[in-house]
Amino acid sequence: MPTLNLFTNIPVDAVIASDILKDAIKAGAKIIGKLEFYVMILVNGGVPIAFAGTEEPPAYGEVISIGGLNPTVNGKLSSTIAEILQTKLYIDSSRFYIKFYDVEDKEMN
């Protein structure tokens, strides 16, 4: 199950969070190549975060997936999520960092 965990210091109301969730689930499923049914997105707003020495609005994300990640996918997903955050929360893409974890499924080996 691909999981995207997003953190920002901007308080996120329920309507904006819902928009982010919908957009990120569709993007994650399409880009990673999984069904939307298997994609999980978490949006954590109002988290104390400083980035590059300031508290200007930043965002941090972590993607964890069993397969489906590679440099091309990671780049596409990173830029798409950055665009969603820019559109919904006005976070500049230079203030967004995302970390990718491709986890090996022990049960499949």
Describe the structure.
There is one protein chain. With 109 residues, the chain is α/β, with parallel strands linked by helices. The chain has one domain: Macrophage Migration Inhibitory Factor (2-Layer Sandwich), CATH 3.30.429. It is built from 2 helices and 4 strands; from the N terminus they run E-H-E-E-H-E. It has a 4-stranded mixed beta sheet with strand order 2-1-3-4, with helices on one face. Helix 1 (14-32) links the parallel strand 1 and strand 2 (40-44). It is globular, with a radius of gyration of 14 Å.
Q: Span between N and C termini?
A: 17 Å
* The CATH top-level class label: Alpha Beta
Report the CATH superfamily. Answer: Macrophage Migration Inhibitory Factor
Gyration radius, in Å: 14 Å
Shape: globular
CATH topology: Macrophage Migration Inhibitory Factor
Proportion of residues in helical segments: 25-40%
Given the structure, what is the number of helices?
2
Q: What is the element string, with H for helices and E for strands?
A: EHEEHE
Task: Report strand %.
Answer: 15-25%
Short summary:
With 109 residues, this protein is α/β, with parallel strands linked by helices.
